[in-house]
């Protein structure tokens, strides 16, 4: 399995499984209601406090899915006359949140700091501005240039939000992109999901207490959704325990990533600008991409075939991603399979 987002390999960890099972025994399978009605348990508040402390913010709010976090936060903060300004490669839920907002959605070319500055310079002085980027981009595997982006935002009095769905458990000792760059105090909102390194499902937003209080009461995807079940909450809490107590797990992840990055380049694959556990193998047209996926699958290697609209037309690729729990033998086996696939692709017309 080299096509998941299970970066720390915690979805099958016995401790995480036991925590989830125990919570189901204690609380049942669902609260069957929203957080404002009957859907808030003590463990929801405990998790929110833990997450806020973990990422270095005053407050955090847990949503039922990561998609709902961006949908609700962006749409409720960007009011009429305001701007949501997002990277063109941002995740679909960021785009959808901007489109649902009463304000205007603007997009700038991927990681183009100068283009962002031009948009901010042209904005009305009285317009609220929220800039939103991914910390790690899920199809390219590159990291957003946060220092430059934050500088531009602060020069133009814009608020800045980073989606750390793929950065939690990976960058900054697991605390995300802002921690990686030492910019936690200069990033207004930090978003994370539980469906990657935290081995569960759900998501959260962290920031100043006053802003989070507003989001709680105005983000429709929070107010009108059933709350996260106790089993999922408990799995996240246990995963967080492990991330904090076993830093060697993240270190092993990066060792595995470096081995695969070097190995794929040595095989002659185009892996783009990836610097993270997401390493794309860029192949171009759809037919080559699906053929490569089929050859990998038949050889016992699971990766993801990704084509437009998830990537630009002609940017078809195999999306590979790696875990801390992959063994040296498994990585070598994957490289051997990919070497054979490369030979077959080179003869394909």
Polypeptide structure, described:
The structure is a single chain. This protein has helices at residues 14-27, 42-55, 66-77, 92-100, 113-122, 146-155, 177-181, 209-218, 220-223, 230-245, 247-266, 286-298, 328-346; strands at 59-63, 83-87, 104-108, 129-134, 159-163, 189-193, 203-207, 278-284, 304-306, 316-321. The chain has two domains: 14-245, Aspartate Aminotransferase, domain 2, CATH 3.40.640.10; 247-346, Aspartate Aminotransferase, domain 1, CATH 3.90.1150. The longest helix has 20 residues, at 247-266. The strands form two sheets. A seven-stranded mixed beta sheet has the order 1-7-6-5-4-2-3, with helices on both faces. Strands 8-10-9 form a three-stranded antiparallel beta sheet, covered by helices on one side. The chain is an alpha/beta fold and 349 residues long.
CATH class call of the largest domain: Alpha Beta
- The level of helicity is 40-55%
| Lateral arrangement of strands in the main beta sheet | 1-7-6-5-4-2-3
Secondary-structure class: alpha/beta
**Unreliable parts:** none
- Report the CATH superfamily of the largest domain: Type I PLP-dependent aspartate aminotransferase-like (Major domain)
Distance between the termini: 29 Å
What gyration radius follows from the Cα positions, in whole Å?
Answer: 21 Å
CATH architecture of the largest domain: 3-Layer(aba) Sandwich
CATH topology call of the largest domain: Aspartate Aminotransferase, domain 2
Annotation, overall tally of beta strands: 10
Strand content: 5-15%
Average pLDDT figure: 97
Series of H and E elements = HHEHEHEHEHEHEEHHHHEHEEH
Counted up, domains total 2
Label the overall shape.
globular
Sketch the major β-sheet. Answer: 7 strands, mixed
Number of helices: 13
């Amino acid at each position: 399995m080299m096509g998941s987002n299970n970066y720390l390999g915690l979805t099958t960890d016995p401790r995480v499984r036991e925590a989830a099972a125990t919570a189901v025994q204690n609380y049942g399978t669902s609260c069957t209601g929203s957080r404002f009605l009957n859907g808030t348990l003590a463990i929801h508040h405990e998790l929110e406090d833990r997450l806020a402390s973990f990422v270095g913010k005053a407050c955090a709010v847990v949503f039922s899915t990561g998609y709902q976090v961006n949908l609700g936060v962006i749409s409720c903060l960007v009011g009429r006359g305001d701007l949501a300004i997002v990277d063109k490669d941002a995740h679909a839920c960021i785009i959808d949140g901007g489109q649902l907002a009463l304000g205007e959605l603007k997009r700038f070319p991927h990681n183009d700091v100068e283009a962002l500055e031009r948009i901010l310079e042209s904005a009305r002085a009285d317009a609220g501005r929220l800039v939103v980027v991914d910390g790690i981009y899920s199809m390219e595997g590159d990291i957003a240039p946060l220092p430059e982006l934050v500088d531009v935002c602060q020069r133009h009095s814009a608020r800045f939000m980073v989606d750390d769905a793929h950065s939690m458990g990976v960058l900054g000792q697991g605390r995300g992109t802002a921690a990686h760059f030492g910019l936690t105090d200069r990033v207004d909102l930090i978003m994370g999901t539980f469906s990657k390194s935290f081995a569960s499902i759900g998501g959260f937003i962290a920031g100043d207490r006053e802003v989070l209080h507003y989001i709680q009461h105005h983000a429709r995807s929070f107010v009108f959704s059933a709350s996260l079940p106790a089993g999922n909450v408990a799995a996240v809490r246990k995963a967080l325990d492990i991330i904090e107590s076993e830093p060697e797990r993240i270190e092993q992840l990066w060792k595995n990533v470096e081995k695969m990055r070097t190995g794929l380049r040595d095989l002659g694959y185009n892996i783009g600008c990836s610097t993270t556990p997401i390493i794309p193998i860029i192949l171009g047209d759809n037919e080559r991409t699906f053929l490569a996926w089929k050859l990998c699958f038949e050889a016992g290697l699971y990766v993801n075939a990704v084509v437009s609209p998830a990537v630009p037309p002609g940017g078809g690729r195999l999306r590979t991603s790696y875990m801390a729990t992959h063994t040296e033998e498994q990585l070598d086996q994957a490289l051997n399979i990919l070497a054979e696939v490369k030979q077959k692709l080179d003869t394909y017309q």
